[in-house]
């Protein structure tokens, strides 16, 4: 693999769901890259298309959904045309996913050690049971589970929700994948454990070159974790850039609204700021910019479809009237 080849390159990705009510454009023209050791934050409200983007990269979109257009290149290899057998070789070994619900990862009737060793040997049958057991024990310790030797013999129902999530994260780390897609994995964890997991994630990327896509609605999480950030709204990428640039001087009105909605930015005693209105239905999106009915900068021009522009170096925005040169 060429040193300059990004771990993941997504171009003009469109993933649509064909329902009786109409076509849901869950992901509609999304492009980004993630390099070795880089952390990309994928941010937006519920229903913005973040998780479907992650599922698309992993080839986990089932009917009535399908990728209708675009390219997903992993280490230079196109994934959208891979046969299912090749997909099974890649999932879990080269690309791992951490789900928001740990029970999507864990089998309730098998012991933790059985599940973790199986996850290792499914991709490398030459690993002995003893070596696999050692790796499992180390992985549990890495995510902060006390007495890992004992906990390996437990069943999922013997763990709390937060502990189950840490086990799921440990399983994702087992095979040292080139890319991890994390779909809001710390939502159920308390702040102390969340900080530990974020630290371990950064350390993993730094030391092993693993690329990480962290999907979340929580800007405070990605602020201390990500190198770059992509903001999604109604299936489209509306802003992209280095994390500090976007948080200090967001270009898109939606990004400014998201940052303004963080409670710590509100004055004590004042009502919490919120973006007016609701996210439009993805089946009946308004013509032009999907955010215009909620945007204080909207003009007649916004009835047309905005395209991605690059008004500043290493910045991208989908807006006719971005906040150029305006810091928060």
Features of this protein?
alpha/beta; four-stranded antiparallel beta sheet; single chain; 328 residues; 22% strand
**CATH topology label of the largest domain:** Rossmann fold
Note poorly predicted spans: none
What is the CATH architecture annotation of the largest domain? 3-Layer(aba) Sandwich
Total domains, how many? 2
Q: Please identify which CATH superfamily of the largest domain we are dealing with.
A: P-loop containing nucleotide triphosphate hydrolases
Cross-sheet strand order for the largest sheet:
6-7-8-3-9-10-11
Radius of gyration: 21 Å
N-C termini distance: 41 Å
**Percent of residues in beta strands?**
15-25%
Shape: globular
Order of helices and strands: EEEHEEHEHHHHEHEHEEHHE
Task: Write structural notes for this entry.
The chain is 28% helix and 22% strand. With 328 residues, the protein is α/β, with parallel strands linked by helices. The protein folds into 2 domains: 1-94 and 179-184 and 208-328, P-loop containing nucleotide triphosphate hydrolases (Rossmann fold, 3-Layer(aba) Sandwich), CATH 3.40.50.300; 101-176, no CATH class. The strands form 2 sheets. It has a 7-stranded mixed beta sheet, sandwiched between helices. It has a 4-stranded antiparallel beta sheet with strand order 2-1-4-5. It is globular and about 65 Å long.
């Amino acid at each position: 693999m060429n040193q300059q080849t990004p771990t993941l390159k997504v171009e003009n990705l469109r993933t649509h769901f064909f329902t009786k009510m109409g076509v849901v454009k869950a992901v509609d023209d999304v492009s980004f890259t993630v390099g070795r050791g880089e952390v990309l934050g994928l941010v937006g409200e519920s229903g913005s298309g973040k998780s479907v983007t992650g599922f698309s990269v992993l080839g986990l979109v089932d009917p009535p959904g399908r990728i209708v257009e675009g390219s997903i290149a992993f280490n230079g290899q196109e994934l959208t045309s891979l046969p299912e057998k090749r997909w099974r070789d890649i999932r879990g070994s080269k690309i791992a996913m951490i789900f928001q619900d740990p029970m999507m990862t864990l089998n309730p009737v098998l012991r933790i050690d059985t599940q973790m060793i199986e996850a290792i040997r499914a991709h490398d049958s030459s690993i002995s049971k003893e070596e696999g057991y050692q790796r499992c024990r180390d992985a549990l310790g890495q995510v902060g589970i006390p007495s890992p030797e004992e906990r390996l013999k437990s069943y999922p129902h013997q763990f709390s929700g937060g502990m189950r999530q840490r086990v799921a994260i440990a399983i994702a780390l087992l095979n040292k994948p080139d890319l991890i897609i994390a779909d809001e994995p710390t939502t159920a964890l308390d702040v102390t454990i969340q900080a530990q997991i974020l630290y371990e994630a950064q350390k993993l990327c730094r030391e092993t070159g693993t690329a990480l896509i962290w999907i979340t609605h929580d800007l405070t999480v990605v602020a201390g974790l990500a190198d770059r950030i992509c903001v999604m709204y109604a299936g489209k990428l509306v802003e992209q850039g280095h994390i500090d640039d976007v948080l200090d001087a967001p270009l898109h009105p939606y990004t400014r609204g998201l940052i303004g909605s963080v409670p710590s930015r509100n004055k004590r005693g004042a009502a919490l700021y919120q973006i007016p209105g609701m996210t439009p239905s993805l089946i009946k999106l308004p013509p032009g910019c999907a955010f215009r009915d909620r945007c204080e900068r909207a003009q007649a021009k916004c009835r047309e479809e905005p395209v991605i522009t690059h008004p500043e170096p290493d910045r991208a925005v989908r807006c006719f009237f971005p906040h150029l040169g305006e810091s928060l």
